[in-house]
Amino acid sequence: MTHYKNNKNFRVAVCLAVFLTMLLPAQSWAHAILVRSQPAKEVELTEAPKQIDVWFDDKVGSEFMALAVIDSTGKRVDNKDVAQETFNPAHLYCTVQPLPPGVYTVRYRVVSIDSHIVTGKFQFTIKAP
Ligand SMILES: [Cu+2]
User: Fold this and answer.
1) Does 2 score more than 80 pLDDT?
2) What is the spatial distance between Cα 86 and Cα 122, in angstroms, rounded to a whole number?
């Protein structure tokens, strides 16, 4: 009786372990995350940037990439010219229109090499000089 119970627990443990090892590689492998940006997240600038740069921890797919900059009224102020650096596929950038002081939101969407879509956003502020 006790033996049967232990055996059953062991089998449950094995199943769980197999299940976890199936899950983990997909989670920890090549799921791109944003590691750096220019302007940096939450930064306050006194001079308007002309370009927005984002860097991921791994290369991202060249399909479906999107980078948008939105002002506080919801208007899109980037030039819809997102590009990927040829020799560093982890780096995307776009240019922006002349930006008056205000709070801006940068939204991004990329496809990791594990085929997962990664989206996110961050803000920066331009203060009057
Ligand atoms: Cu992933």
Assistant:
1) no
2) 24
Q: What is the pLDDT of residues 58-69, one digit of tens each?
A: 999 988 899 999
CA dihedral 12, 17, 18, 22 (to 10 degrees): 140
pTM exceeding the 0.90 threshold for the entire prediction = no
Q: Distance from the CA of 107 to the center of ligand 1, in angstroms? A: 18
Q: Distance, CA 82 to ligand 1 centroid (Å)? A: 22
Compute, in angstroms, the gap from residue 26 CA to the centroid of ligand 1.
Answer: 6
Please give the CATH topology (third level) of the domain spanning 34-126: Immunoglobulin-like (2.60.40)
Q: How far is the CA of 120 from the centre of ligand 1 (A)?
A: 14
